[in-house]
Amino acid sequence: MSLAFQPTPPVLAPTSSGEQFPVRRVFCVGRNYAAHAREMGRDPDREPPFFFTAWAETVVPDGSTIAYPQKTSNYHYEAELVVAIGRSGRDISVENALDHVWGYAAGLDMTRRDLQLEAREQGRPWDTGKNVEQSSPLGLIHKAGDGDFTPDHGAIRLTQNGDVRQEADLADLIWPVADVIAYLSTLYRIEPGDLIYTGTPAGVGAVVQGDEIVVSIDGLTPLKVTVGPPAP
Question: Once rounded to an integer, what is the mean pLDDT over residues 85-89?
Answer without folding.
Answer: 98
